[in-house]
Specification:
The protein has about 100 residues and is α+β, with helices and mostly antiparallel strands. The chain has a domain of about 60 residues: Orthogonal Bundle (Arc Repressor Mutant, subunit A), CATH 1.10.10. It is built from three helices and three strands. The protein has a three-stranded mixed β-sheet.
Length: about 100
């Protein structure tokens, strides 16, 4: 398989966010669509929104560039909003 793009940089993730799942109340899980949030996106949410760090501080802690962090946090927030607004299961998984 040909190599496309740059190799993915290892990201520092301080907490284990894998295998976490949230679903809307009162609806059977098998009837719901799923939204997957990856561990690095969840770590971005934790650092930015929970720890209230600036994006550059978050990027430094995760060992990635600020622009990469910005894309991660935007993606995570969009997925979380989609899950909450459209009654979807929110599942946190590690990247394979």
């Amino acid at each position: 398989m040909p190599f496309c793009g740059r190799r993915r940089k290892n990201r520092n993730i301080a907490a284990d966010h894998s295998e976490i799942c949230f679903k809307p109340c009162g609806v059977r899980g098998e009837n719901l669509k799923r939204v997957i949030v990856y561990e690095d996106e969840m770590e971005a949410i934790r650092l930015s929104d929970y720890e209230s760090l600036y994006q550059q501080e978050c990027a430094d802690k995760m060992n990635i560039s600020r622009t990469t962090f910005s894309r991660l946090i935007e993606s995570a927030r969009r997925k979380i909003a989609d899950s909450l607004l459209h009654n979807k299961i929110l599942e946190v998984k590690g990247r394979e």
